[in-house]
Amino acid sequence: MKKHTESSLELALKPAKRPIELSVRLAWYLLRNKLRGRKRFPLVTMLEPLEMCNLACVGCGRIREYKPVLDKMMPVDVALKAVAESGAPIVSIAGGEPTIHPQIDRIINRLVEQRYFVYCCTNALLLERQLAKIPPSKYFCWVVHMDGMEEKHDESVARKGVFKKAVAGIELALSRGYRVCTNTTVFRNSDVADLREMFQFVAELGVEGSMISPGYDFQDAPDQDLFLTRQEAKSIFKELLDPAKTKGARFYNNPLYLNFLRGEREYQCAAWSNPTYTVMGWRKPCYPLADEHVQDVEELYDPQLWEEQYGVGRDPRCANCMMHCGFESATIFQAISTPKDWVTLIKSGAAHKGGITGA
Ligand code: SF4
Ligand code: SF4
């Protein structure tokens, strides 16, 4: 059987389609910050304008962690101020289910007017009613949660019929001219063949690309057996991303991160590049962990956090984490000083985002 090397993987996996302006703007943003001598700076602002959801997925920590504040809705001006304070050119909106927020259209439309690249993660159940209020734009992309084909997806979100609604939402949004991606979390009970079928299926529907990440073992998620250890994750992604079997799939993550997931590269976490703002403030230190919530985003760049306290080998809770919010951006930051890796990112059109994560 043909052995696939890192570079054959890069060639074999179809790159996602995405606006060129996004790649150019992000490359310029990275260069500008490097020239200013900034060692740590944000690539993606993770915005969670509410934590309430109309589903209760088995692997979701958020709806349980934020139980006391599930009814809290972030005001529009507070959301815009947080994004401006972070300064990252990309905004990933999650939660909770963003389409439940009564002013989500105002938040998204204002950010788009300001030319941020906005990704809105959704389970698509209420997508249709937002289409009338949020016009399509090259600066805006729906990211629909898909954890498998019908049976596996409905099992993951603990409700029958959700897969069909998600597919109908994707088709409707595409037919009205929206950019659409999908977002998949891989768990211990994920079925590799089923996921491959789903990636091909959504690529045929016409989505821009599929984002993937292993789940994080959120302490508040009810089924702790769901989450992969680092070793298990590497082995499942090696199988899942076998180029000989992923024909037709279109991945949104950059090829260096995909190689990391396959266990072919090692990186230290760079979660400071994805600051996460919630109804309680900025999660400190990162998207998966909130040892505290703080009001000043600058606190998240404290070198002591990242040189002594958090990351693989420093905090036991980081041992199994391979999430894109910590490690996809790490591939980008390391590539800045590694010309060969930078060329790989440019060729794949992936100097584009620092890891856009879903709910
Ligand atoms: S994972 Fe997303 S869709 Fe599922 S319950 Fe959590 S916020 Fe809702
Ligand atoms: S490795 Fe640790 S600090 Fe980094 S994103 Fe994962 S949980 Fe957060």
Question: What's the CATH topology label?
Answer: TIM Barrel
Strand content: 5-15%
Number of strands: 11
CATH evolutionary superfamily:
Aldolase class I
Distance between the termini: 38 Å
How many separate domains make up the residues?
Answer: 1
- What's the overall geometry? globular
Q: What low-confidence regions span 5 or more consecutive residues with pLDDT below 50? A: 1-5, 7-12, 351-359
Strand order, biggest sheet? 7-6-5-4-3-2-9-10-11
CATH hierarchy: architecture: Alpha-Beta Barrel
In round numbers, the mean pLDDT is: 90
What proportion of the residues is helical, as a percent range? 25-40%
SS element count, helices: 14
Radius of gyration: 19 Å
The CATH class designation is: Alpha Beta
| SS-based class | alpha/beta
Helix and strand pattern:
HEHEHHEHEHEHHEHEHEHEEEHHH
What small molecules accompany the polymer chains? iron/sulfur cluster
The largest sheet, given as strand count, sense and whether it forms a barrel, is:
9 strands, mixed
Structural notes for this entry:
It is a single chain. The chain has 359 residues and is α/β, with parallel strands linked by helices. It has one domain: TIM Barrel. The chain contains 14 helices and eleven strands. It has helices at residues 6-12, 20-35, 62-65, 76-86, 104-113, 127-131, 150-156, 162-175, 192-205, 230-240, 255-261, 303-309, 324-336, 339-347, and strands at 14-15, 44-47, 90-93, 117-122, 140-145, 179-186, 210-214, 250-251, 276-278, 281-285, 290-294. The protein has a nine-stranded mixed beta sheet. It has a two-stranded parallel ribbon with strand order 1-8. Helix 4 runs parallel beside helix 5 (104-113) and helix 13 (324-336) packs across helix 14. The longest helix has 16 residues, at 20-35. The chain is globular and about 50 Å long. The model is unreliable at 1-5, 7-12 and 351-359 (pLDDT under 50). The structure holds iron/sulfur cluster (2 copies). The site of one iron/sulfur cluster (SF4) has 16 residues, from helix 13.
